Amino acid sequence: MGIRKIINKFSVGKQKNAFYAVVKCSDCGEEVRVRIESSSDFQAEYDKNNPEHCYTIKKEIIGKNCYNLMKISLALTREARLLFADTQDCEFIAFKRETEHAT
Predict the structure, then answer these.
(1) How far apart, in whole angstroms, are the C-alpha atoms of residue 57 and residue 76?
(2) How far is CA 31 from CA 27, 28, 63, 64, in A?
(3) Which residues 6+ apart lie within 8 Å of 66 measured at CB?
(4) CB-based contacts of 70: which residues, under 8 Å, 6+ apart?
(5) What is the pLDDT of residues 3-43, one digit of tens each?
(6) Residue of 31, 42, 44, 17 lying closest to 90 (CA atoms)
(7) Residue 14 φ/ψ, nearest 5 degrees
(8) Which H or E run includes 89?
(9) Neighbours of 21 (CB within 10 A)
């Protein structure tokens, strides 16, 4: 097996567990896409008042051209469906699972 096949094999496996959040800076309007790994960024939640809320993701984000610190906190179901998003210094745009064909 060639090195390229090995790299592609492992890359595809990682993409299945990757998610992306997109936010827009409140100050300059720059849109930033941030990668979220289900293996390291998902924090388990146990809330008897909201049993559908199973995971929380918290990220601090800085853009490429803008150095304002943006923060997001996402609440997810067991199936990684978004329940709600809280933001600070940014506007939440999207949360989605990365597909195998994405680059």
Answers:
(1) 8
(2) 11, 9, 8, 10
(3) 25, 27, 28, 30
(4) 23, 25, 26, 32, 60, 61, 62, 63, 87, 88, 89, 90
(5) 555 455 555 444 456 899 999 999 999 999 999 998 899 99
(6) 31
(7) -70, -35
(8) none
(9) 23
